[in-house]
Amino acid sequence: MRYLTIETSSPAAGVCLAERLGHEHHVLYTKTWVRKKAPPGKRHKTPSHSELAGQYIEQGLKQTGLNLSDFDFFYTSNGPGSFTGIRVGVNIAKAYCYALNKPLKAMNSLKALALNARLQKVPILCLVNAFKNQMYVGRYEATSNNLIETLAPCSLTINDLEGLITAPHLCLGDGYDTYSEYFSPGLKKNLVRSKTYKDSPRVELISEFLSSNIDSCPEKPWKDLAPLYIRQSEAEEKLSKGLLKPLPKL
Questions:
Q1: Contact criterion met (CB below 8 Å) for 23 and 64
Q2: What does the alpha-carbon distance between residue 25 and residue 19 come to, in Å, rounded to a whole number?
Q3: Burial (Cβ within 10 Å: 0-12, 13-18, ≥19) of residue 62
Q4: Phi, psi of 78, deg, nearest 5
Q5: 3-state secondary structure of 70
Q6: Taking a C-beta distance cutoff of 8 angstroms, is the pair 117, 173 a contact?
Q7: In this predicted model, what pLDDT tens digit does every residue of 108-119 receive, in sequence order?
Q8: I want to staple 110 with a disulfide (CB 3.0 to 4.6 A). Which of 63, 126, 179, 217 is the partner?
């Protein structure tokens, strides 16, 4: 069984081509990259996720001698996270599945992030910067071969988080570094940080998890997969508040 994994929900993105032979997981090709936010008023000097994902998938196919039709299913994280990044992964995976009539699998990006520490016995709290003093939050507990979701992805303020976390959690995600200066001493004490684990989903760990937990990530018809945005984009917020006006007729 072969599978192509696409992860673009955060600035740290990647693609992974892999296969399972018997009970063994084999990475055939993997490529990761980081696209940092451009300084205010300046344009990006690095290519976008959409440009790089397509480029590296093509490179992986050439190096392995495979075609897209050789894969049994395609995977992507569907959010929450970067609005643009989520759309990139979702649209690429949906396009492949539609064109090739292949199964599509997806996982929310907070669970994908929690996979970085899935061997830990303490609860895992994922905090991702949602901007405007909000964080995307999800909580997970590890079992022998899976992650149990104890708090579904949601958008919370710091005050919401203060009332929610009353015991130690291993904390992953860029939301901690973004807002920790505003956390109370009690909340900081309960959010345990470790340099061992990255603050972005890792495509190679997602691929490995899929290999050993195929059934835990159900297939979705390509047309039914929608990005998990949770909160409105800035443009949608302005539109709902009447701050965007239609262009005058010529």
A1: no
A2: 6
A3: exposed
A4: -110, 20
A5: helix
A6: no
A7: 999 999 999 998
A8: 126
Q: What is the pLDDT of residues 157-199, one digit of tens each?
A: 999 999 999 999 999 999 999 999 999 999 999 999 999 999 9
At 148, give phi and psi (nearest 5°).
-95, 125
H-type alpha helices, the chain: 49-64, 83-100, 109-114, 158-164, 174-179, 185-190, 203-212, 234-240
Q: Which structure tokens are listed for 226?
A: 């929608």
If you search the block for the tokens 């071969």, which residue do you land on?
Answer: 145
DSSP label at residue 228: -
Tell me which residue has tokens 């061997």: 119
| Strands ordered across the beta sheet of 169-172 | 147-156, 134-142, 124-131, 169-172, 191-192
Do residues 7 and 208 touch, judged by C-beta distance below 8 A?
A: no
Q: What is the pLDDT of residues 206-248, one digit of tens each?
A: 999 999 888 778 898 999 999 999 976 555 454 555 555 666 6
**Please, what are the domains in the chain?**
2-109+200-240 (3.30.420.40), 111-192 (3.30.420.40)
Which one-letter amino acid corresponds to residue 130?
Answer: A
Residue type, 173: G
Residues in the chain: 250
